[in-house]
Amino acid sequence: MKISTLGLLAAAAIALGACGNTTDQRIGGAAAGAGTGAVVAGPVGAVVGGAVGAVSAPTVVRETRRATR
Question: What is the tens place of the pLDDT at every residue in 17-59?
């Protein structure tokens, strides 16, 4: 059960992380942050990771795109 849940979170993070506009970036960042936070610190980590991911995702994507040009 736990492995399938983590697999689902990972798949959602990858799928949503590939989206291009700011709203999709925030959703993808929140999903990735929540998944990582859940693995590291449980339910509290999922909430904190999701919030941090949603706030920082557009900046990270912008810097990554700038660095690869």
Answer: 555 557 777 888 888 888 888 899 888 888 888 888 888 887 8
Q: Which stretches of 1-69 are assigned E, i.e. beta strand?
A: none
Residue 21: left (phi > 0), alpha (psi -120 to 50), or beta?
beta
Query: How far apart (Å, rounded) are the C-alpha atoms in residues 47 and 51?
Result: 6
Cα 8 → chain centroid: 13
Q: How many CA atoms lie within 13 A of 27 on its CB side?
A: 11
List the chain domain ranges: 2-68
Helix (H, G, I), strand (E, B) or coil at 8: helix
